[in-house]
Design brief:
The structure holds two protein chains of two kinds. Chain A is built from three helices and no strands. Chain A is an all-alpha fold. Chain B has a domain of about 130 residues. Chain B is about 70% helix and about 0% strand. The chains are: A mainly alpha, B mainly alpha. Chains A and B meet through helix 3 of A and helix 6 of B. Chain A: It comes from Pseudodesulfovibrio senegalensis.
C-alpha cells in the first residue's frame, strides 16, 4: 500500500514540475495555459490519490471516510480546473489576443 | 540592477531571519500572550460558556461586543462603497454609442462555464451553510460562511450576466440583508438585557426561553453567527456589483 502511495505522489510531483517548467519557458498565454491546465490537473489528481491511499492504510471506518472526502475533492478539481482554463482561453480569444507564431517575440 | 535588487532582497530576508531569534521560546509561560487571560479561557471556557470550541467561546461570548463592532465595520465598508461609487447615470450616458458587437463584451455566453457554474453553486452554498453551522464545534463561523456564500453569488454573476444576478438578489435586497444582519446581532444583545443581565450575555436568553445554559449559548451563538454571515454576504455582494459595473449596476462594462 505504501509503495503505491509513494508512486502516486512522486508521479504527481513530476507532473507538477513539468507544469512549472512549462509556465516559465513557453512564449505566450495560450501555450502557458495549455501546460498549466493539463499538467497541474493531472499532478493534483495523482497527489490527492496518493494522499487518499496513505489515509486508508489502517483500514478503519474513520480513515475510509476521510479518504472518501479526499476523493470528492479530486472530483471537484477534475471538473473545475479544466473549466477555469477554458474560461481564460475564451476570454483571451474574445479580447482579440492572437496566438504566438514562430519568429514572434515572447509575451 | 537585477543583482542589486537580489542583494537587497537577500539582506532583508536575512534581517527578518535574525529577528526571529528574539522570539520567546515555544510554550514559554512567561510571555505576555500566555500570562493574563489565556489560562482562564483555556481552563474555564467550557464550564462558563458551555462552548466546545475555545476560539468561538472567546469571539462569540467573551468578546461578543468586539465581534459585533467588526460586523458593523463590514457593513460600513459596504455602505461607503455604495455612497462613493453609485451613480444615477445609465450605461448610455457613460458610453454614448455602445456598439452592438463589441469584441470586448465578455458577457457569459459560454455553455461550458454556465453548466459548471450551475452545477457547483448549490454545492458551494451547502458548504457555506456547513461552515456557518459548525462554527460552534469546529473551525468556521459567520465570517467564513458569509464569504463562501458571496463567492457562490459572484460565480453566478460572472458566469451568466448582471441581469441574472440581479434577478436572484436585487440591490435593495442586498442593502436590507446587510442591515438585517447587524440588527439581528444587536437584537440578541438587547433581548438578553431584558432579562436583567449584561448586553450580549447569553445566559439571559437561556433564561427567557427556558433552556439549559449550554443549549441557550449554542442557540445564541448560532443566531449571532447567522447575523454576521448575512452582513458579510450582503456587503460583499454589494461591493462586487458596484465595482464590476462602474457604479451603474448595469450590464455592459
Amino acid at each position: 500500500m505504501e509503495t503505491i502511495a509513494v508512486i502516486f505522489i512522486l508521479t504527481g510531483l513530476l507532473f507538477d514540475l513539468g507544469g512549472t517548467i512549462g509556465i516559465l519557458r513557453l512564449p505566450d498565454v495560450y501555450t502557458r495555459l495549455h501546460m498549466a491546465g493539463k499538467l497541474d490537473t493531472l499532478g493534483s489528481l495523482c497527489l490527492l490519490l496518493g494522499l487518499a491511499v496513505v489515509n486508508a492504510i489502517p483500514l478503519g471506518t474513520a480513515e475510509l471516510f476521510v479518504s472518501g472526502k479526499i476523493l470528492l475533492i479530486l472530483i471537484l478539481v477534475f471538473i473545475t480546473s479544466p473549466t477555469a482554463t477554458h474560461a481564460m482561453v475564451d476570454a483571451g480569444i474574445k479580447a482579440g489576443l492572437t496566438p504566438w507564431r514562430k519568429g514572434d517575440m515572447r509575451r | 540592477m537585477k543583482k542589486l535588487t537580489l542583494a537587497a532582497v537577500v539582506i532583508a530576508g536575512l534581517l527578518l531571519a535574525l529577528t526571529t531569534l528574539d522570539f520567546p521560546r515555544w510554550g514559554d509561560p512567561q510571555t505576555p500572550a500566555s500570562m493574563h487571560v489565556s489560562a482562564r479561557f483555556i481552563e474555564k471556557s467550557l464550564e462558563e460558556m458551555a462552548t466546545p470550541n475555545i476560539v468561538t467561546a472567546v469571539l462569540g461570548d467573551y468578546r461578543a461586543f468586539d465581534t459585533m463592532l467588526e460586523t458593523i465595520v463590514v457593513f460600513t465598508a459596504g455602505l461607503a462603497c455604495f455612497f462613493i461609487l453609485r451613480t444615477r447615470m445609465t450605461r448610455e450616458d457613460l458610453e454614448p454609442a455602445a456598439p452592438e458587437n463589441d469584441p470586448l463584451d465578455l458577457a457569459g455566453e459560454d455553455l461550458v462555464i454556465k453548466t459548471v457554474a450551475r452545477t457547483f453553486i448549490p454545492l458551494i452554498q451547502l458548504f457555506g451553510l456547513y461552515v456557518l453551522a459548525h462554527g460552534h464545534y469546529s473551525p468556521g463561523g459567520g465570517f467564513q460562511g458569509g464569504v463562501i456564500f458571496a463567492a457562490a453569488y459572484i460565480l453566478l454573476a460572472v458566469s451568466h450576466d448582471m441581469k441574472t444576478a440581479l434577478r436572484h438578489m436585487s440591490e435593495r435586497a442586498s442593502h436590507l440583508l446587510s442591515a438585517a444582519g447587524v440588527l439581528l446581532f444587536a437584537g440578541i444583545g438587547v433581548i438578553c438585557m431584558t432579562n436583567g443581565v449584561n448586553f450580549l450575555d447569553y445566559g439571559g436568553l437561556a433564561g427567557i426561553l427556558g433552556m439549559s445554559l449550554a443549549t441557550g449559548h449554542s442557540f445564541a451563538i448560532l443566531l449571532i453567527e447567522s447575523g454576521v454571515a448575512l452582513t458579510v454576504t450582503a456587503a460583499l455582494i454589494m461591493i462586487f456589483k458596484l465595482l464590476s459595473s462602474h457604479g451603474t449596476v448595469q450590464e455592459g462594462f
